[in-house]
Design brief:
Layout: H1 5-26, H2 35-58, H3 62-85, H4 92-118, H5 143-147, H6 162-170, H7 183-199
């Protein structure tokens, strides 16, 4: 993708215009606080939040996305508390307690939701797994690879000893990749060979 100069210019104009409007019409400060300094803090907050959102949109790690989301929610929550209490003359220690309580609440709630999403529910730890009755489920393999003769690329247990064969199977990818067959396909090959031998 190429950077569009026109879109960049429009974005800068809208951003600068919004900041000027916010500074002149919306920004309020404490008595004795310098308005320019307060605006610089707001811009710093905006830059930090924008950086977090940028990392969130570019990363593919689900765990990192969850962590960044918790940070963003905590950041916005602290900002809202500060904005709501700045004209009430509360002691700094009281506001600090509010920040800590709200952050802990967000983190605990996020961990519970993350655990519930990873497992089979919030109270899944109360249940035990049922014993498996009957034959184990067969592994899914790529039928097109089977028909194409790719199974011939699998390690041959008749030409390797048990240790070498196990090592050769272990290095195969879980799913098929260009030039490599999958571990599931090779295991299925040996399973079918075993069934054929038993049938004879």
């Amino acid at each position: 993708m190429e950077l569009s100069i026109l879109r960049l210019l429009l974005f800068m104009v809208v951003l600068v215009g919004s900041l000027i409007y916010y500074y002149n019409k919306l920004l309020s400060v404490h008595e004795g606080e310098h308005k320019t300094f307060a605006m610089m803090k707001q811009v710093l907050y905006l830059l930090v939040l924008g950086g977090i959102i940028s990392i969130f949109s570019s990363t593919e790690s689900i765990d990192l996305k969850v962590m960044l989301l918790v940070v963003m929610v905590s950041f916005v929550n602290i900002f809202n508390i500060n904005s709501s209490t700045k004209k009430c003359n509360y002691p700094s220690l009281y506001k600090l307690k509010l920040y800590i309580k709200s952050t802990i609440f967000v983190i605990v709630l996020s961990l519970l939701m993350y655990y519930s999403n990873k497992g089979e529910g919030l109270f899944s730890f109360l249940y035990t797994e049922d014993p498996i009755i009957g034959p184990p489920p067969t592994k899914t393999i790529d039928i097109n690879l089977w028909k194409s003769g790719a199974a011939s690329q699998c390690p041959d247990p008749n030409k390797l000893d048990a240790t070498e064969y196990d090592k050769a199977i272990a290095v195969l990818p879980a799913t098929a990749k260009p030039g490599l067959v999958s571990r599931a396909l090779c295991e299925e090959v040996e399973r079918r060979k075993g069934l054929d031998t038993q049938g004879k």
